[in-house]
Amino acid sequence: MTTTVTAGSMAGTRSGESGLERQRARAAFWFLVPMLAMLAFVAAWPLLRSIMLSLTDADANTIFSGSYEWVGFDNYLRAQERADGTIRWRGVLVDASWWNAVWNTIRFAVMSVTLETILGLLVALVLHAEFRGRGLVRAAILIPWAIPTIVSARMWGWMFNDQYGIINHMLLSVGLIDAPIAWTARPDTAMIAVLIVDVWKTTPFMALLILAGLQMIPKEMYEAAKLDGIHPVRVFFRVTLPLLKPALMVAVIFRLLDALRIFDLIYVLTPRSSSTVTMSVISFQNIREFGDYAEGSAQSTILFLIILVFVTLYIWLGRVDLSGERSR
Amino acid sequence: METLTFLLWQLVRFAIFLAVALAVTFPFLYAVLAAGERGEEDRSPAGLFWRGMFWLVVGLIVLVAVFPFYYAILSSLETGTALFRVNYLPESFNLANYRDVLTRPAFVRAVGNSVFVATITVIAALILAVTASYALARVRFRGRGLLLMTILAVSMFPQIAVLSGLYELINWLGLYNTPWSLILSYTIFTLPFTVWVLTTFMRDLPIEIEEAAIMDGASPWIIITRVFMPLLWPALVTTGLLAFIGAWNEFLFALTFTISENQRTVPVAIAIFTGASVQEIPWGPIMAASVLVTVPLIVLVLVFQRKIVAGLTAGGVKG
Predict the structure, then answer these.
(1) Which of A132, A313, B106, B165 could bridge to A46 as Cys pair (CB 3.0-4.6 Å)?
(2) Where are the bilayer-spanning segments (chain B) (predicted)?
């Protein structure tokens, strides 16, 4: 990555550049300004304000009048001295419900991405094989991806219904359970329900990303192995998987970033369930439902920092071809 | 100490989870690989067996992918007690739920709001992105790599991280509870996405066309509008469609920045659909509404599927 970037940026500074190059660079600047100004206005500024609000005591009554006060890192962690002289720690970093949300988010992200990677690999291999009706299969797997998250949450909510749901009906008739389960309400099954819906909805996307990686592997690789009479499963683990690894890593981190910020599915499928509440959900509840802008912003800032680490990892591991010169 | 044992125990649990997931998937993986190796002409018993296993996997994938939506359509056509009796094949064809949904002014209004918000968002994003991605894809300048990296990073950041700051901004602009608050906030994810995908598309256009235009003395603006735009139409349609789907499905901002019934968008309307009483969830109308807002999307996606797959993978990974 670094080499291509420097090669690209050096070109502009080389002495003796033509007037045309300079004219083009000037035009490029003016072409970029509206987009950058817009992003600064709707993304950078609100992000900075959110981080700043997390350092104040803003709530629903004070946020617009500006009468909130600067409190430093008190929302994150502060010591409170009790009358008997013992010290009590307060703030998001010692809040049990916050750590519960962190744990839920991690649990959800790790399990959903693991399942989506394994199943996505399987679906990608099917789509990579040549058979009649492949187009139909690809069309079918695009359906879960095309359905809005809220709609899939509602559809599955109906299927998971404790009294009339088809899932309970299926499991009862096969004899796997002997009483209906309130999937989305019970603390021990709510996360399972969320995982099932998320895996159903996102595996197609994962499969398409992996398929793009599979298609980049030269065909000769397989043919050489085939001629040598090596078993296909061996070929998969010795040839395909190592060659697929870079694409797979990028896809996994990309999905992980998405899973860490999950909000809508959980908010609609399992509302008010403490066993599925995630960082985004708890932060939203503080901001919108309790009007606690200070604490909500502190929580969203922590989530932002966590994702920042993963984005850096993504760009570094994926060695994304930023200037596009490698693919030429 | 307690935390450590907890984490270790969770690690063990994850290892078991992973082992089970792999063990369950492996036979299917094996079938796909073995069938692919043998090809369709193999008529030996083993060949036929693996072929059959392969079709079983294909059948399972299609069934799981399609069934929930099929079941939603099935349920949307049932009312009364029929809705609460589980059936796997269509038994009734009752359009009462659709009539119910379409006579709710709030729902019809929500569809209108969604169309308006998504359309304006897409147009704004495309206008801002076309010139920007020309500059990013075709002109060499210092810091281009860093700029693209930042744009990619913006599209991955959690929406919740800007929520309170954006709420403040929207109130300050006086846009709270209007569609314009959503159009403004959706730019956060549609603009970086459109710029990124259009840049990858534009990079692949042959350099000769541009060189010929430069020889003729065309300015960068003429090159974009007269030379590139006609070539870019397919890419614009794809990117616009993906951005439209993103804006159509968005939930968090819509839930935060609109409050009254006639300003809501479709996802919020469906999420808080209520029946005659609070306890009773109107599953029939919810399913009808879900089908109504999803069918156009599915049709669009299936019509443009090749282009969408290309756009998605360009937006996701290109490395």
Answers:
(1) B165
(2) 12-36, 48-73, 115-137, 146-167, 179-202, 223-248, 283-304
